[in-house]
Structure formats: C-alpha cells, structure tokens
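Title: Prediction job returns without error message
Component: structure pipeline
Severity: low
Priority: P3
Assignee: unassigned

Description:
Job completed but the reporter wants confirmation the result is attached to the right record. Sequence as submitted:
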Amino acid sequence: MNPCNFTHTTFILIGLPGLESAQFWIALPLLTIYVVAVLGNCTVVFIVRTEHSLHAPMYLFLCMLAAIDLALSTFTMPKILALFWFNSQEITFDMCLTQMFFIHTLSATESTVLLAMAFDRYVAICHPLRHAAILTNTVTVQIGIVAVVRGSIFFFPITLLIKRLRFCGSNVLTHSYCVHPDMMKLAHADTMPNVVYGLTAILLVMGVDAVLISLSYFLIIRTVLQLPSRTERARAFGTCVSHIGVVLAFYVPLIGLSVVHRFGNSLHPIVHVLMGNVYLMVPPVINPIIYAAKTKQIRSRVLAMFKIACAKELQAVGSS
C-alpha cells in the first residue's frame, strides 16, 4: 500500500445516483416521512408522560423507543434533506464521525429497549403475579439508563478506530449519512481491527438481543398454547402483536443493510442508498403508527386530542 501523506477533512455524501434531477421532488416525501416521525413520536412521548394510567413498564419502554427514534431522525434527516434540496454533499470528518457514533449508539440502545420490551411481555404472560414486583417503574428507568450506557460503551471505540485511519483516496461515501462500514472502506490503512471490533460489537449487542428476544417469544408461545381457552390465548398473544411488528421493523432493514454492506459490492450504488434510507427511516415512522393502531389507550387519547383540536378550530372559525 502506498504511503498516505495527507488525509481528507471532508467526505461526500451520495443522494440518488442517476436521479439527481429528481432529487428535489423526491425530498418532498422524505420531508413528509420526517414530519410524520416527529409528530408521531412526540405524540407518544406526550401521551405517556401526561397520562398517569400509562405509567407502566410497557408504555415507559414505548416512550423510550419514541425518544430514541426522535433523536435518530434529528441527527440524520436535516442533513439528508439539505443534500436532496440544496446538493449539500460535503460533511466534515468530525461531523461525520459524530453522526456515525450517534447512529450506531442509538441503534444499539433501541435494540436493548426492544429486548426489555420482550422481557416485559414474557413476565406479564408467563409470570403475571410477579410482573408488578419485578418490573417496577424504578427498574424500568434503570433499564433505560443501562440501554444508553451499553450502546455508548460498545460503539464509542469505533470512533477511535476510525479516527486513527488516514483517508487519501476517494472520499465519496455510498450513503446519505455516515456509518462505520462505509467510512472504513475508504481508509488507506489496515482496517482489520475495525472489521473485527465492528462485527464483535454488532454480534454482542444486536445479535445477542435478537437471540434473547426470540427465546422470550418461544417461552411466551409455549405458555400461551397451554392456556385452556382460545379466547385467552388470542388475548394474551394480542398483547405482543405491536412489539413483534416493531421488532420486525427494526431488524429486517438492519439485516438487509448488513447484507448489502457485506455482499453488495457489485450492486448499483442506488441500492446501497435505498437500503440505507429504509433502515434509517422505517422504524421512526412505523413504530408510533403500530402502537397507536394496536394500543387502545394511546389510540383513544390521540382521537380525543384530535377532536379537541377540531372543536377549537371550528369555534375559532365561528367566532370570526
């Protein structure tokens, strides 16, 4: 490998290769997705915070999930919209590093919260009499803190591993935002430590969480099938439907993006961009919709808020 006498201080983000002329209009649905994600998750946080009857572990975990999705959207979507609307492709190395850290840390935190939600469903269905004693509100908040610390501890070293590398070849990324595999591929140095640690961190966080979530649902299904009444079985499993949907919305795009990073070198660049954007945008939009549709308390509160807003609007129109 030739010696590297300089290193890039900026990287170039990619919009939609081959569709540059249409990016301005494509950004409009992206803005809609961003607005829906922000409004949906803010609504969930507001309802759970103000409705005392929802101060239970399942809803507190949902509130944490909404806060994570809000943070993830805030750290990425404004730059993506600037890229599509104003062709603002440049991003500084330090800003890229910061964005990369928060994307990976927040994703790891979300994975941990999803595991905690699976554990909540397991205890509620398999050990209902012990649920209140095991998962108190204090324990739930402590689990949230552990989730943040766990994500930070596992993925902060990745920033140090990237910072030691030199970049003197191409500085064009294959996504609309910064992630570790994408930055690592552009390095003009030995990236084996990055590969080993990155894979280890993913396996120890998302991999372990996925296994434990699967184990939780295996135990839940076994318990549900032992219930005597078909109605009881349907009711018990119905409490898990929302969580299963959220888990799929998180892990399916994650697996797809990982496969593209590992085996997609021959694919058209637009595939990388699309898979990256799906991974980033789907969970923040889908999560509040799933829980609003399947959770009666949240759905009724949203409808009540909407009726109050409409009544005030009609009253204002009538008085004018």
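Comment from assignee: result matches the submitted record. The two ends are 75 Å apart (CA to CA).
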